[in-house]
């Protein structure tokens, strides 16, 4: 089954997903896209207007948001078939706390922790085109002076949040949820602080005297990923045109796997076959992807979309995404 990653250099969430694919040991190909719009490889060829990167195609199913992608990879490439797992067993007894790990990764690492980091970038040196693009992404003009002024506060909050990691590791555990191997929780926090480590002016945050356990943990996760990278072939890069043709010629996941929960749909004022627009609740809200609602459960929406390369099924998480009725095409 083909697996295609759409990503760009410098995208922290692309790094997160690349790490997940490493851990899962899933062969894949990748398409390098622009860090700014337009991205015809996605919007025109696939018919997906989703603004954020990365996205991942498994067969003809296109998955958006790393939280849902992680769940889909775990389901479609299970450890029982020889793949790695994002939810290893606890070190001392019992299965992993999968629900809690997912909630931790989404609600804390992605939603609370990560948003503190971008202000530490050198916004005053960014091009006008980049500022304009990211303003459209946010849905409001970016105030560069305000971002620069917020750096001290956000650096302090990153320190405060790192103290929670330090507290969690204080009992000498190797990984955050005391699992046999690092879990999604470790990778969800690691990619944020690893990204921040590359910025200027953040040296005081990574103080060994203040966060000895956390810094050792960061190094352990980095080393673990490094070993996996050495043991696996580098993913080949293909063009957006070739990727679209590959995806279009691959099979869909059966509708029944996700199913259609009519009770959940009714709560949302939706029904199967509705023409809907799906978009994130936080940023990029103005970039809804429009298609026919074909599957829905408590975890995801699935819509059929049409691009120049063919018809695809696009999957979005239920958490922090909204599907609403859209005007049907004439």
TrEMBL record:
SUPFAM superfamilies: GST C-terminal domain-like, Thioredoxin-like. CDD domains: GST_C_family (cd00299). Residues 98-239 form the GST C-terminal domain. PROSITE patterns: GST_CTER (PS50405). Signal peptide: none annotated. InterPro entries: DUF7962 (IPR058268), Glutathione-S-Trfase_C-like (IPR010987), Glutathione-S-Trfase_C_sf (IPR036282), Glutathione_S-Trfase_N (IPR004045), Thioredoxin-like_sf (IPR036249). Transmembrane segments: none annotated. This is GST C-terminal domain-containing protein.
